[in-house]
């Protein structure tokens, strides 16, 4: 696991990120920046990415497959069990994609608190 003390965030940053991601409903996605902003850390989207990479995943109740890049792109193939797994998980939840293979954020972006 990444040494969180090296980031200056302390041991709670990753757990706070996991807590936000646990709130994303099925069939919705959030961006890394959106998660960071909801945490009160709007400039730490990259650190949210590190957290998702270290998450316990679905077995730990963290649906990290619902977090995508700001343009709707999916994570590289090393995550989620191999190339295509994030897309497969999102499709099973009803998430649709644009012609260029990105999540249709207009339809599926999570609006927290709405």
TrEMBL record:
Coiled coil: none
Signal peptide: none
UniProt entry keywords in alphabetical sequence: DNA damage, DNA repair, Methyltransferase, Transferase
GO MF, any single term: methylated-DNA-[protein]-cysteine S-methyltransferase activity
Domain Methylated-DNA-[protein]-cysteine S-methyltransferase DNA binding: 12-95
Reactions this protein catalyses: a 4-O-methyl-thymidine in DNA + L-cysteinyl-[protein] = a thymidine in DNA + S-methyl-L-cysteinyl-[protein]; a 6-O-methyl-2'-deoxyguanosine in DNA + L-cysteinyl-[protein] = S-methyl-L-cysteinyl-[protein] + a 2'-deoxyguanosine in DNA
GO process terms (BP): DNA repair; methylation
CDD domains, alphabetized: ATase (cd06445)
NCBIfam families per the UniProt record, alphabetical: ogt (TIGR00589)
PANTHER family, per the entry: 6-O-METHYLGUANINE DNA METHYLTRANSFERASE, ALKYLTRANSFERASE-LIKE PROTEIN 1
Protein name from the UniProt record: Methylated-DNA-protein-cysteine methyltransferase related protein
Species lineage: Bacteria, Bacillati, Actinomycetota, Coriobacteriia, Coriobacteriales
